[in-house]
């Protein structure tokens, strides 16, 4: 994919997301349900590589590591992320010149020293330039498990998810501008969408940022009212961090069926009116409404001028503390489901009310 605009850091997409948990046996069963397969283990550390398609999840159980301390503070969570770059050392030193804080990741004998800078919530953001099969960081630092020695077999299909589509940060109120400027200064990200969503009781503000390569998207969210979903996340997570990870598939209907068969809890479907209005919102969209409704899949995009640009999406319930996953299919649409935001936001508000985390005053009877 050609760069959308100037790409001074040589960005080439997401490489991996790193996870940790304060107790064992939390991450692995979840990743199995999500369709991932454990294909390699680190040569000297208690670290595993889980993969589905071209999506890499790193599970880090190494004692007294940065991931270990992150999980002690935040609970089971995404404790780091990695960008692919053309030249890791060039990108790293450029980031330092622009004010990034370095993070030292210890490496053992004959292991790669991965350059990293301090990112959201103190989590490391790694810069990786070895990602081709046969030459990747996994070929050097990991041992592939039996059955995955052949590079051609190292990309299990799983539930059909192929790429990390985007990765969302929740930040404290007033900090969204700081992080937008941080990504812009270091990586030349651009803001492509701005949202100011008001639900019935709370609000949310979001800036959707994209990298010059068009492959890395990071929406930034902050609370727009009080007591809302972002505030609840920050309290439960004990700070800023990765709120959700969106995984992309070419067939969301089949992928959702596989998720449901595996027992992954998904957000409940919108009401009947949402689906009845789809043809009015998106005339001639051509999607099987009954099948979307049966699974709770949301539809957004545009059909103006006879040109279909559609996005299908669904969200899991929180699976790692307050952290959840999104599952998405793009049909020529590069948005984030803007048309669904208010309906989704209000459904999350109702869930907060049901769980008792959002207190609302009872309606007062009207005088006769």
Q: How is this structure best summarized?
A:
Helix content is 26%, strand content 31%. It is of the alpha+beta class. The model has no long low-confidence stretch (mean pLDDT 91).
Question: What key phrases describe this protein's structure?
Answer:
368 residues; alpha+beta; 2,3-Dihydroxybiphenyl 1,2-Dioxygenase, domain 1; nine-stranded mixed sheet; 11 helices; 17 strands; metal-binding; 4OHPhenylPyrv_dOase; 4-hydroxyphenylpyruvate dioxygenase; repeat
Describe this protein's structure.
The protein is of the alpha+beta class. The chain is 26% helix and 31% strand. The chain contains eleven helices and 17 strands. The strands form two sheets. Strands 6-7-8-5-1-4-3-2-9 form a nine-stranded mixed beta sheet. It is an enzyme of class 1 (oxidoreductase). Fe cation binds at residues 166, 244, 326. Its cofactor is Fe cation.
